[in-house]
């Protein structure tokens, strides 16, 4: 474990991720207040949908439904009891919906507004600037689970696979794998804890920009991981990556240029968007290659003890 920490420190250093709690103190200035008489959930959803659409807020109706449902104690508007759709709301509920909707008008992601989001059946806490898990990432988890099921030899010291997640963010992937592979050992690592500068706090992007910044071609972190992989992977050990659709070809070319790593791209999978768009007939993002399975062959390399000097990053064994 200490070895992994030393090797990963070189590219996991930098500003940390810090999230605050979502309080319920209401602002004294609340624009777009609903007109008098709009007192039930259905009317409020329609009102805020119109406001969001006018202001160009993405997924206007979904945003308003999630916010109203959250205030009423449900995860989705559709899961509310029908009686609540037309039941008058209390003044506190109206005010809380107003406050949360005002945050959405500032383009804060719904996940941060609610303070939680579901992933693979788990309810995860969400706070900026921690990276929000995407629906497509659930497919990566499912692919890993498939591989473990098909390869019973993937066993660590405690009878299950040993899994390292680099750049864990909210821990969605690690926690999902651990919940379905209780015998596995999962280590999740991310950048060290540090203050977030005022510039970032004032920026329009609520998520940590570094979570999406991989350099000019987006390959910086990917090549770091692949270069270190032979030193931590056993024979036939696997790496699963979620990448940009343009990366599979770049990764394949990079691996061909580094035969010394004994790493091979064995499979590429398309994401949820591709499958969904194929059904709906929309072609804008049809069949996007998103997930890579890379495997190593040959004996495990030794890593010099002082190859990655410096303190170890925070690691959380779940």
From TrEMBL:
SUPFAM superfamilies on file: S-adenosyl-L-methionine-dependent methyltransferases
Please provide the record's keywords in A-Z order: Methyltransferase, Transferase
Q: Pfam families, per this entry?
A: PrmC_N
Region Disordered: list its residue ranges: 298-318
The answer to whether the entry has keyword Lipid biosynthesis is: no
Q: Which InterPro entries match?
A: N5-glutamine_MTase, PrmC_N, SAM-dependent_MTases_sf
Q: Which GO terms describe its biological process?
A: methylation
| GO terms of molecular function | methyltransferase activity
Highest taxon of the lineage: Eukaryota
Q: Does the keyword Iron apply?
A: no
- Which parts pass through the membrane? none
Q: Where is the Release factor glutamine methyltransferase N-terminal domain?
A: 43-115
Under which name does UniProt file this protein?
MTRF1L release factor glutamine methyltransferase isoform X4
This chain's source organism reads: Erinaceus europaeus
Give the source lineage, highest ranks first: Eukaryota, Metazoa, Chordata, Craniata, Vertebrata
């Amino acid at each position: 474990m200490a070895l992994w920490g030393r090797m990963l420190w070189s590219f996991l250093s930098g500003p940390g991720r810090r999230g605050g709690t979502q309080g319920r103190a209401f602002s004294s200035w609340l624009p777009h207040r609903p007109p008098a008489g709009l007192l039930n959930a259905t009317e409020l959803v329609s009102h805020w949908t119109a406001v969001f659409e006018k202001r160009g807020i993405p997924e206007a109706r979904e945003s308003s439904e999630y916010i109203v449902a959250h205030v009423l104690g449900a995860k989705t508007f559709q899961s509310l009891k029908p009686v609540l759709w037309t039941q008058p709301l209390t003044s506190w509920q109206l005010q809380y919906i107003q406050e949360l909707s005002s945050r959405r008008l500032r383009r804060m992601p719904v996940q941060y507004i609610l303070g939680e989001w579901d992933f693979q059946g788990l309810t995860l806490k969400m706070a900026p600037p921690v990276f929000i898990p995407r629906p497509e990432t659930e497919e990566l988890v499912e692919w890993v689970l498939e591989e473990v099921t098909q390869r019973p030899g993937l066993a660590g010291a405690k009878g299950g696979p040993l899994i390292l997640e680099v750049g864990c963010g909210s821990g969605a992937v690690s926690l999902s794998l651990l919940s379905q592979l209780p015998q596995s050992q999962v280590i999740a690592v991310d950048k060290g804890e540090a203050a977030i500068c005022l510039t970032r706090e004032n920026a329009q992007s609520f998520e940590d920009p570094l979570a999406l910044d991989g350099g000019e071609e987006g390959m910086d972190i990917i090549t770091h991981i692949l270069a270190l992989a032979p030193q931590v992977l056993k024979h036939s050990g696997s790496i699963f990556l979620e990448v940009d659709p343009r990366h599979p070809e770049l990764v394949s070319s990079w691996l061909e240029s580094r035969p010394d790593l004994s790493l091979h791209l064995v499979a590429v999978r398309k994401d949820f968007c591709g499958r969904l768009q194929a059904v709906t007939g929309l072609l804008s993002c049809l069949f996007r290659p998103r997930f890579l399975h890379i495997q190593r062959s040959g004996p495990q390399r030794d890593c010099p003890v002082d190859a990655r000097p410096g303190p170890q990053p925070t690691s959380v064994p779940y």
